[in-house]
Design a protein that fits this description.
Layout (H helix, E strand, L loop, with lengths): L2 H14 L4 H20 L4 E3 L11 E3 L1 H4 L1 H19 L1 H21 L4 E2 L7 E2 L7 H19 L7 H18 L6 H22 L3
Antiparallel strand pairs: 1-2, 3-4
Helix pairs in contact: 1-2, 1-5, 1-6, 1-7, 2-5, 2-8, 4-5, 6-7
The protein binds zinc ion.
Length: 205
């Protein structure tokens, strides 16, 4: 999921009622940025399907970027930054958006999300085994986020989120599967960082 996380970020901008939406997009995508960096460092793992014709999704071993414990830790860090720079309301929404990453991933992933790493409680509905259904849910979440965002910030960030959704759908259904873990990580890492930077720039005052 990528567009769905961005939908959560832009929706939160309305209720946070202040700040560059880039901060919220950073909070929403932070777990994935950490994931792709840790995969390149060999700390976390992505499992590439051997039968991409029938299995259109990657699975992960990612306790440091995507467990409940890690999510709570990162959410606290974002909230603490928010208190410093924007007050309690801004802090609450930064932390909530960071934590929403886990919830939205669990909504579609197979149960590869854990409480605190291997041999702990696992989370995930396995909706991603039916890619069309998973994409439909992501599209609804993304569009809902944009509908919430639109009245307060009518800027090009909306276009970025729409393009991200279109590319997410195309990539999931028809995109080539990566051939190595490094190849799987580089593209998404650059995409995530690029989207965060682009949203910061487009929402600058
Ligand atoms: Zn994720």
């Amino acid at each position: 999921m990528l567009a769905g996380h961005m939908g959560a970020a832009v929706a939160a901008r309305r209720f946070a009622a202040r700040g560059n939406v880039g901060w919220l997009v950073l909070a929403a995508l932070f777990a994935d940025v950490v994931l792709w960096v840790l995969i390149l460092l060999g700390v976390e793992r992505v499992v590439i399907p051997v039968d991409p014709e029938t299995r259109r999704y990657l699975t992960f071993v990612f306790p440091y970027s995507h467990s409940v414990v890690a999510t709570c830790l990162y959410a606290c860090v974002f909230a603490a930054m928010g208190v410093q720079w924007g007050g309690w309301r801004w802090a609450g929404w930064l932390g909530a958006v960071m934590a929403s990453h886990f919830v939205l991933d669990a909504l579609v992933h197979i149960p590869d999300l854990t409480l605190a790493g291997a041999d702990t409680l696992r989370f995930g509905t396995s909706l991603q085994t039916q890619p069309v259904a998973a994409l439909a849910v992501e599209a609804v979440l993304t569009v809902a986020g944009l509908v919430v965002y639109w009245p307060v910030r009518r800027n090009a960030v909306v276009g970025v989120v729409v393009v991200t959704l279109v590319l997410t759908v195309g990539g999931t259904l028809w995109g080539p599967m990566p051939e190595s873990e490094a190849q799987a990580a580089v593209g998404p890492l650059l995409t995530n960082v690029g989207l965060i930077a682009l949203c910061f720039w487009l929402d600058r005052r």
